[in-house]
Amino acid sequence: MQAYVIVLIVFACIFSLWGLLSLLSLLIYLIPQLVVRILNPLDLKKRYGGGWCFITGGNSGIGESFAKKVAKIGLNVVILGQNEERLNKVAADILSINQNIETKTIKADLSGNPEQVTEEIVQQLSGLDICIVYFNAGFGNAAQPTKKSLDQFNTNIVTHQHLFQVLYPRLVNRQLTAKKRGAILFTSSGLGIITTPGSVVYSATKSYLGHLGECLASEAH
């Protein structure tokens, strides 16, 4: 009986700790949202001197929402995705929000050969004054070491890292030569902090992106 009580206490402590960590993760997400809503939204066009915003996974979800936000304030938008029909629809929606900007779509599969995919993407970005790079594309649900988990790893991290190697120096050069700021954004996840069974690869990739963003913010500053 005593052992049974001890087991219950241990499980209660584990679930309490899990609940606390989940609450902290939620607060980490909500507090910045509240700050933005209370304060005046930042004018990204003025801050970064105009130009283009490049968004991977910009044809759906968070990426699509961000594309429409920056279009509304007057930044040109490049959205990247796999579904050409969806890309064209989102591009049309963006132009309906602000007809004074330009849009560009790039159809690419980030799970392919990272070097080749990066080269093809960079060619299509040639000549654009990019001020914001948003590495948003990614997917989950590949827990076992299969071909799909490798595709997930390439999509979430490897190809983005190759793109980072090319685009980050451009933003630095933009700052040095034109005195215009630039920004790189990453979509991380609470699962990068608190993992769950079945999300091992996804959690690892999101943890990497979160730490990369934090370290880059400190180093670039």
Automatic annotation (TrEMBL):
Compartments where found: Endoplasmic reticulum
UniProt cross-references to Pfam families, sorted A to Z: adh_short
Top-rank lineage group of the source organism: Eukaryota
Gene3D superfamilies (alphabetical): NAD(P)-binding Rossmann-like Domain (3.40.50.720)
Main location: endoplasmic reticulum
Membrane-spanning residues: 6-31
GO MF terms, alphabetically ordered: oxidoreductase activity
Any Gene Ontology CC annotation: endoplasmic reticulum
Keywords from the UniProt entry: Membrane, Oxidoreductase, Transmembrane, Transmembrane helix
Family: Belongs to the short-chain dehydrogenases/reductases (SDR) family.
Identification of the protein by name: Putative 17 beta-hydroxysteroid dehydrogenase type 3
